[in-house]
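pasting for the record
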Amino acid sequence: MTLSERLKQLRDKSNMKQEEIAKGMGIPLRTYCRYEYGEREPGVTALWRMADFYGVTIDYLVGRSDVR
């Protein structure tokens, strides 16, 4: 699973809108959308924020592990 697929899956499970996710992560909405659509790759700081927000590991986010 790719990062963009994982982000979409996590957002769907949380029943939140992209706007809410971006605000919760402290990043611009357009930036989050680009990550979710696979148009842009996040840096380390953004990956940390995503992992912390969803309560998962970075390896889980990027598809290297299925263990949250």
